[in-house]
Amino acid sequence: MQENLTQRKRNQRDTWNAIHQAAFGLASSKGPGAVTVDEISAQAGVSRRTFFNYFPVKEDAVLGTRSAELDPAVVERFHASTEDELTRVVHLFVSVVRTCLPEETAAQRRAIIAEHPQLRARLAELLAQVERLVYSAVHAETDQGGMHLPEGAGAHAFEALLALAGGITKFAFSRYHESGAESLDPFISETIALFRKVVETTR
Known about the structure:
The chain is an all-alpha fold. It has helices spanning 2-30, 37-44, 48-54, 58-63, 72-80, 85-100, 106-115, 120-143, 157-179, 185-201. It folds into 2 domains: 1-63, Homeodomain-like (Arc Repressor Mutant, subunit A); 72-202, no CATH class. It is built from 10 helices and no strands. Helix 6 (85-100) crosses helix 8 (120-143) and helix 6 (85-100) crosses helix 9 (157-179). The model has no long low-confidence stretch (mean pLDDT 89). Residues 36-55 bind DNA.
């Protein structure tokens, strides 16, 4: 049973990759706007229905992106973390972003966006999905009394924390994207430290 499940997941991964590579190749040669779902499906050897089982929109196939997800294991790690609140929320943001922007497709994503900047609009939609999921997780913990900010921080402190953590995450991903580096990890801690330093020196 486990072998069958593993094989099914392999097949799903291979189909996902085949559709993405077909979409990326066609978009690179013809431009994203000139490529149709039917062309991508034919090139990948799948049906139109199968295409939409894997990608909700054509742009995701071209970019190698997925819809954002909030894994229960990620939420559990967030609840269990003993790091400070800002670091906890940033790591939650990063974990959710990674569900929709796989690092294994990052190089091709950089290349196609450089050629066709209009594709950034889809990234913005995905990041909006991320924000909604993170906000729901943080507010759920807040309602349960699990989040703590300094006394006197004010009624809007949690909204400010979410906005700051979201800004740090976007800045870190932007630096990672521009650098061409293989891993995002070094940029996360560096960006948290940078934002803390900026806030401290501008008080």
